[in-house]
Amino acid sequence: MLIQRPTDIPSSEITPREHYEGRRAFLRNAAGLALATTLPRAFAADRLTGRPGPYSTTETPTPFKNVTSYNNFYEFGTDKADPAANAHRLRTRPWSVVVDGLVQKPRTFAIEDLLRLAPLEERIYRHRCVEGWSMVVPWTGFPLAALLKQVEPLGSARYVEFTTALQRDTMTGVGWGSGLDWPYVEGLRLDEAMNPLALLVFGLYGEVLPNQNGAPVRLIVPWKYGFKSGKSIVRIRLVEQQPQTTWVKANSREYGFYSNVNPEVDHPRWSQAKERRLGELFKRPTQMFNGYGDQVAMLYTGMDLRKYF
Predict the structure, then answer these.
(1) How far apart are CA 219 and CA 116, in angstroms?
(2) What is the DSSP string of 60-88?
């Protein structure tokens, strides 16, 4: 397991210079350039930097081009290239996130408020899709726990529900026949959400989060399959009962609520024992909890991980 804590690897050492060439025109579509005068110093035009954070892997990051052109974001189409082609339509400003439910202090946070809420960190995480492919991404954000502490969860709160944006006029994939119930909803147990690995993300590769990757704010839960990490979040609600999530409603046999990365539990239609890292020819073995077992295995003590997929 290749995990550093804390890491001392700066972005300049993990990101080849050529990966930054030619990105400015692309990132204008992420609406980053209009915000330089309103956000903290860490945010300047198309840049979004953070201090090196803990739990980073020493594995080589996947090239920026692959990370931003091979995506699942069904609101913009089901083909991997669809989000990059269509997500420029997404309106990311103004943007706010409602945090409510079983909390002492419900609040609505403008995106500018969120960016000032806690120090931004860069964390290099492995990212594993349930479909069998993976990547390594330098994300910029802060622990989700920092936001949840602001609203003071009640003792009755046991789960956290995440609702993502629904813009029917910009999202080309949410029409009739998509097969999913919109808006997209995901959820975690509260103790999972409070785990220091769970990250609220605003950028990748030291730059503003591109629309196709979930701008302007998304979740990253690196020990779970990627569909658990909701994109373009607009509401976070603390609840007592397990949320009815989009993929569980669509097909609970293939997409469970927990969906921890587990090479011993196959998807009904394919093995999960190996994965294909984007940019690599040969498959590699999948790690339990995506390699983050030291940080999260205690959350599931006593649970049959084959049953609680």
Answers:
(1) 17
(2) PPPPHHHHHHS---GGG-SSTTHHHHHGG
Tell me the C-alpha distance between 42 and 87, whole Å.
25
Asked whether the predicted pLDDT for residue 231 surpasses 80, the reply is: yes
Residues 6+ apart with CB under 8 A from 127: 134, 135, 136, 137, 220, 222, 226
Fill in the DSSP letter of residue 304. -
CA 210/CA 217 separation, integer angstroms: 10
What is the pTM for the complete model shown? Answer: 0.88
The model's pLDDT over 73-101, given as tens digits with 9 standing for 90+, comes to 999 999 999 999 999 999 999 999 999 99
For range 205-228, the mean pLDDT: 98
* Neighbour-count burial of 297, counting CB atoms closer than 10 A to its CB (0-12 exposed, 13-18 middle, 19+ buried): middle
Find the domain containing 226 and state its range: 3-300
Both tokens of 258, joined, read: 């927990």
In a domain, 306, yes or no: no
Q: Is residue 85 part of a domain?
A: yes
- Measured CA to CA, the distance from residue 30 to residue 32 in angstroms comes to 5
Model pLDDT, residue 46:
75
List, for residues 5-52, the tens digit of each pLDDT value: 434 433 433 444 344 334 433 333 433 433 433 455 465 557 898 999
pLDDT digits (tens, 9 = 90+) for 270-284: 999 999 999 999 999
Domain membership flag for residue 309: no
Residue 260, domain member (yes or no): yes
Using CA atoms, how far apart are residues 216 and 203, in angstroms rounded to an integer? 8
Q: How many domains does the chain have?
A: 1
Phi-psi region of 100 (alpha: psi -120 to 50; beta: other; left: phi over 0): beta
